[in-house]
Hints:
Chain A is mostly helical. Chain A is 73% helix and 2% strand. With 321 residues, chain C is mainly alpha-helical.
Amino acid sequence: MDQLLQHLLNGLLLGATYSLLGIGLTLVFGLMSVVNFAHGEFYTLGAYAAFAALTVASVHFFLAIPLAIVVGAAAGAVCERGLLRPLRGQSIDTVMLVMIGLWIAMQNAELLGWGGVAKSVPTPFPTQPLVLGPVSVAPLRVFVFVVSAALILGAHLLLARTKLGRAMRATFQDRETAALMGVSIERIHTVTFAFGAGLAAAAGALLGPVFLLYPSMGDLASLKAFSVVILGGLGNFAGAALGGLVLGVAEELGAGYVSSGYRDAVGFLMIVAVLLLRPSGLFARAERVG
Amino acid sequence: MTRAIRALSIALAVLFAVGAPAAWAQDTVKVGVIEPLSGPVAASGNYVRMGAEIARDWINGKGGVLGRKIELLIEDNKSDPKEAATAAEKLIVRDKVPVIMGAWGSSMTLAAMPKLAEYGVPMVVETSSAATITKQGNPWIFRISPPSEMEALGLQKYLKDFGIKQADFLAVNTDWGRGSVAAFGDLLKKSGGSVGTVEFMDQAATDMNAQITKVKAGSADTLFLTTSVEQITLVLKQAQEQRLTRKVITTGGSSSPSQLIKQAGAAAEGTYHILFFLPWFPEAMPDGKLAKAFVDEWAKRGHPFEGLTEGFRGHDGVLTAVEGVRLAGKADPKAVQEALWKVNVMGLNGPIKFEKDGPAGKESGQSKPSIFIVQVKDGKIALPAFAAKK
Amino acid sequence: MRAVALLLGLAAAATAPFWVWNPYHLHTLIMAGIFAVLALSLNLLLGYTGQLSLGHAAFFGIGAYATALLTVKLEWSPWIGLLAAVVLPGLAGWVIGRLALKLRGAYFVLLTISFAGCVSLVSVNWMDLTNGPLGLPGVPALEIALPGLPSLSLRTKVAFYYVVLVAVVLAYLVCLALIRSRVGRALVALRENETLAASVGIDGTHYLVLAAVVSAAMAGFGGGLYAHYTRFVSPEVFLFTYTVTMVIMVVAGGKGTLAGPVVGAVLFTVLPEALRAATSWQWQMLLYGILLVAVLFFMPQGIVPALRQLGSGVRRRASAS
């Protein structure tokens, strides 16, 4: 029983980070139809930005995270205006390939700039774990969970309650009408992409201290993000948030009770199952998938 | 189709132009180096490269070999066996190197091996640990790193001191990790111990909590850990988080304990590590002066201290390759291959001398490297009490 | 004029081993050929049905493993291995096609990624079957052994170059035949407007499955060739980078054309090698990424369509003057 509780706790903590990765991507992928293979690179960028702020500029830990979000969002905005806007209207595959090129370039630039040696991020949290009955957890991970939840909630509020959020949702529902109503389509695209990149960077800044920083850290993040997006349904914000938790718990239980070697297969099999049985996502209402 | 052919011809022309022999044809002895310089293990590959460069500069400082300077031709295998094979092909055919060092990972080395046999060029294997490498019947392979079985034998004399009754295994899901689990598991069983939980982790995985929870639920007294230093850091931190109290022994020589202490902090306390080079106690190495000089030179170049436990491989690999050229008397691959059997030189790890390994008539060369054990005590590296005596 | 150019080009390709004096360059051409087969196979799905398979490396890998396992573990003839390399991935393609049934677009993409991921994990973990991460070294070379005649080993580079050349031509012809047939027209109809196609009685799923089977079988064939050339198969054949490379070759070369994938394959096999020769290892991949973005930026439809536009533009101007 103890093992199960620990597995569940691990799964929830892991899942929260998957959720954070997923919601950024679901907006870009689901609403802009951009297969953003560079999503993981914004994650990495956020992690390195936080690291640079902490070690080079000696910024306080709790400031480094918002800083990383800003850097990520800015990079996203530049990317959107410089690469995606000129290619608007091109086939989805061409755009996807451009994002792949960006992925390769960004990762190797990071390798060139920071070197391949993994870096660890200093945190103000004690390393002694908190003991809650039969399970234990590091204070840092609780912090990450809380902040992730807050960010997800904040993003949801932004989308649902603000004028900007309404404009975003309107644009992706019906572009022409939104334009007729006075929404600047170009600006919305830039904002959406920056939003997604910023969330990815937040995930990187939060997870960097939990794990380690190295140039290829974004590859796994991209893969998990795509899985979460499918589980939750394309463009479905709440779905991605819940989907992340589901994936995290499923992986933990799979690795714990079935086989650790096939751990990632759990995610894949879930995707296959969802696609075959409920293609619009576990949490979606009816939606066209073809 | 016409355009395809046209484009093909243009591409061929480009290839032709680009592939023309280099303009500078200095009279150097070229040594090929194939390492993973990008991708997930870029750090390790680069450490080996740095060690190789120190060896090159030292050798050239003493006049080179056969009256000529040596030149390292460094290729990136991008952690991909296909690239390793292509890099070998390029080095052999285009650059005409008489000897190569590489290719770090066992799959990369195995992929390059057919090229070595095809063209008849020897390769000094500096890191790969898969047993199959020297058992394939490829007489162009000369390995200075220990296969997992040899590494396990190196632990044998300390087994009683460790007092292991049952051990769990947590290894990276590659040929190295699996080979290590098999070799150390066998050793344990032969010495009367038993194997507990065996778990694996994907090379890129960052969350090992599930595996650790399973290990914790068992009743073993020791945990053998085989993976890169980054994953060891994560495992130790997560093990600390789950309050796992076991004796931890890392294998494979890539655990870089200094980096572990820096990044895992208290979580690394008390852990044991099997290594092939001790940069903290260079005097304890078989050639203490050489080891100390290497550590100093490494620091002088501003390379990170943590990289020494892998960088020495590059040095010893180049040293061996060049010694082969020297004994051959000429930079000819076949002559170098025959000469490598006669090599008897002192490297940073210890004496390097090749013995026959593999099917009769087509043996590969395998040296018997020295194996060491250290422990992290009070945030510093120390020789465990029982090891210091020996 | 076109016929002359075509003949010259074919002659160049056919005699390449004699004037490409450097075996390393020949090696590059062989790899380009194998990737051309792979790119042509992916183009069937991507270019003609409009569905993207991002798990294509799975078919490539299954083909490679099929022939490697049969020739190493059971010691069967490599030709039977090649046959298995075509049939088994074809079966897998059929499964994917049928599973995909109603999936299109991004959903199909993710199904293929998941499939590839699962197959990759099996190859790493099922040690008894595939030897796991240790891989299968010692895959034999192809050889022609007809009764009564001495066996002709196709081990050498020159021999294998011709094998690959024949393979590329075969693959090209298969694609050509498929595209020109009723099936091809149905596929294009699917790509352009599936609802409309359905309204005239074209069963989208049936043709998608057919395309998937042929595409997978061809990719498997490429995998078999790869196995008998490099003679070592390990789980790295399932690496996502192989799929990415194939996609790059098809899209940058020009999807939906038949010349595009071939051009893309040659260009993007030669390019990394040229970078390897031209720059030190630190800059190779960074430059590769930048070049990829640049090619797509200036030629978003792909190289072959861009060249064709250029060609027709020149002809128009020439005829106007």
